[in-house]
Amino acid sequence: xxxxxxxxxxxxxxxxxxxxxxxxxxxxxxxxxxxxxxxxxxxxxxxxxxxxxxxxxxxxxxxxxxxxxxxxxxxxxxxxxxxxxxxxxxxxxxxxxxxxxx
Length: 102
Prior knowledge:
Elements: E1 2-9, H1 14-17, H2 19-33, E2 38-46, E3 49-59, H3 62-69, H4 72-83, E4 88-95
Antiparallel strand pairs: 1-3, 1-4, 2-3
Helix pairs in contact: 2-4
C-alpha cells in the first residue's frame, strides 16, 4: 500500500477569495475517490489556517498511483492550481501495510 500525507499551503485568502479553487478541490477529491485502487483520498482544511490543506491518500499500489498522476482530473486540477500556486508544500510518500486498528 502507498500512503501520502502532508500539507499544501496556499497564499493567504486563496480559499476565501477563489471559489473556483474550492470547487476544483472538491471535484478532484470526488474523481480520485472513484479511481480503481484508491483506498482513501482526503483534502481537509487546517482549522488554524484555512489556506493550509491537509492531504491524506492511500493507494493499493504504485501502479494505480501512477495512473492517478496521469488522469484527466489531475491535469484539470493542476491547471486550476496554477492560477493560485501553493506557497508551500510538504508531502511525504510511504510504502506500508494496512496497519492495525488502534
